[in-house]
Amino acid sequence: MVGGAAAVTPLSRAWAIARLVHPFPVSIVVLTSAALVLVAHGGYPGGSFLLRAVAAVLFCQASVGALNDYVDKDIDRIFQRDKPIACGQATERSALVLTVSAALVSALFALTFGWPSMIVLLLATSGGWAYDLWLSRGPFSVAGYLAGFMGLLTWIWLINSRLNLSFLLVYAAGAPIIAAAHLANAAPDLETDREMGVRNLAVVLGERRLVPTIFTLYALSALAGTALVVAAHSVSAATVLIASLVVAGVAAIVARNTTERPARLLLFKLFAPAAGLLGVGCLMALRQIS
Known about the structure:
Elements: H1 10-20, H2 23-41, H3 47-71, H4 73-79, H5 92-111, H6 115-133, H7 142-159, H8 168-186, H9 190-195, H10 201-232, H11 235-254, H12 261-289
């Protein structure tokens, strides 16, 4: 121990670099994206195709996550001293190097599907960067989430040659659940953001309105998903939708007492997979309709 801080070993530094990318939300996005690749393709697309698609998404999200930790480093040194940069396990330079290098690797994997694929995925990554750098601290914070995740969904359908006018339904049905996911992600840091003068959408809503807004937005997308499932007469899509509703129900029970940060963090960790399952169920139904 030196100066009250844990000694930095190669193993601890490697783990700190891994933590820079926000492993839990990234894993949810990557797993959901992998499932959506299978849905969009109508089955197993082959090992090479799936591996390249998953790698492109993984490095895209890693870039956004690392930049987020770099931007929030000063706040973390005050309120979340266990974060990689704040505790000294990772350097600011390593976060920036990871941001740029991961974006480049993501772009290279996307390029294997063609130039349009690379451009669309870079635009989706840029939406995440815009959130990290500017939007996350203001009332339009949700715009970065919408740009990033709508871009990612568009990219998945593009590389599978499935883009058509029916995909516009995804934007309408997906916007509420993406906005809800943003609010759930911001919920654990509500007090911290308020104390630092941040005025993102979660802070503007406040504790009293935040959770009801999250589940109202979820309900809107769930209703749209139900309509798609009924129109598709899809048992498999209905099963995934029901799984989402069950997980969301557990999250709603947890949300009855979200005055403390650990409870709001648990809410996010439950809501994230519920949102992912809802997205998969909706797009399974849409795939069968179109």
